[in-house]
Design brief:
By secondary structure, the chain is an alpha/beta fold. It folds into 2 domains: about 10-145 and about 265-310, Rossmann fold; about 150-260, Rossmann fold (3-Layer(aba) Sandwich), CATH 3.40.50.460. About 45% of the residues lie in helices and about 20% in strands. It has 11 helices and 11 strands.
Length: about 325
């Protein structure tokens, strides 16, 4: 158990894909540590930085004016070497040589698997903060970056709707989310999309075409189809091609929003969530908690073991999917 009198220096890193709000989380970790009379150390480029000893002392001014910035000031990377225990041991030894007593990891499930290995193999105190636009991490209602990503997608689709209406087009808009349909579902409801294709619900191309043809007969001359990147029928280009083949009278266009969803200034919701979770992560370490991810469920702070956070996924609300379909009629 980590104890307040033994904890003097906390390291913080961001790992995996960047997400809006990561900087707000870094800021909260650093300033909470300083408030608690602890030293804070930033690790550049995630786990790669642990191996290469890319450490920097963090002061209050180090995180000034970053709460509104997208991306991560500590940079990020995907470190394949960290999958090998020998490199994880180097990382732990580097932290101990630097005097780092505990680590806060901001990232997704891949990042948490690395954090869990540090905790289990070397008994090194680690707490995680869920930072990913996919919102697929179990143990928290929302992950840092999700709200901003959805708002980015919503604004883009609103603009595409204008062109779709002007030219009687059906737009297939591909959003990110890996194998989770949260961005797709939320964006679809928020924009009044005509159809929602997400990994959690099997897509039948014949039913989709029949639905679109029925809508055309109702004099609906344009449309927006939201496609989550992990849909069973393939990507937006592949699905649009199949629809065009079956419905040659439809004029289709494809827009892949891509990494635009990962950038930009974080929304108020993401800034607040990141700030609270950053604070709670430091407090969790001071309370002796380790090997857990800090989350928020129904407004309450939760602590989920890394192994559970990594192996289970948030599930979409199937009722919301039904609502998206009902409101598209």
């Amino acid at each position: 158990m980590t104890n307040l009198k033994h904890l003097k220096k906390i390291g913080v890193l961001t790992s995996g894909g960047d997400a809006p709000g990561m900087n707000a989380a870094i800021r909260a970790v650093v300033r909470t540590a300083i408030f608690r009379k602890l030293e804070a150390v930033g690790i550049y480029r995630g786990y790669e930085g642990l191996i290469q000893k890319q450490f920097t002392e963090m002061k209050t001014h180090s995180v000034s004016k970053i709460i509104s910035r997208g991306g991560t000031i500590l940079k990020s990377s995907r470190c394949l070497e960290f999958k090998e225990k020998a490199y994880r041991e180097i990382a732990v030894n580097n932290m101990r040589e630097e005097g780092i007593d505990a680590l806060v990891v901001i990232g997704g499930d891949g990042s948490f698997r690395g954090a869990d290995a540090l905790y289990r193999e070397f008994d090194f105190p680690v707490v995680g903060i869920p930072g990913t636009i996919d919102n697929d991490i179990y143990g928290t209602d929302y992950t840092i970056g999700f709200d901003t990503a959805v708002n980015t997608a919503m604004e883009a689709v609103d603009k595409l709707r204008d062109t779709a209406d002007s030219h009687n087009l059906v737009f297939f808009v591909e959003v990110m989310g890996r194998d989770a349909g949260f961005i797709g579902l939320y964006t679809s409801i928020a924009t009044g999309a005509e159809a929602t294709l997400i990994p959690e619900v099997h897509t039948d191309i014949n039913k989709l075409c029949a639905y679109l043809d029925h809508e055309r007969r109702k004099n609906k001359t344009s449309g927006i189809i939201i496609v989550a990147e992990g849909d069973n029928m393939g990507n937006a280009n592949e699905i649009a091609a199949k629809v065009s083949e079956k419905l040659p009278d439809y004029e289709t266009r494809v827009t892949t929003l891509g990494h635009i969803q990962r950038g930009g200034s974080p929304t108020c919701n993401d800034r607040v969530l990141a700030s609270i979770l950053g604070n709670r992560a430091v407090e969790a370490l001071l309370e002796g908690k380790s090997g857990v991810m800090v989350g928020q469920v129904n407004g309450q702070t939760t602590y989920t073991p890394f192994q559970e956070a990594c192996t289970r996924h948030n599930e979409i609300n199937k009722l919301w999917y039904e609502i998206a379909h009902i409101l598209s009629l």
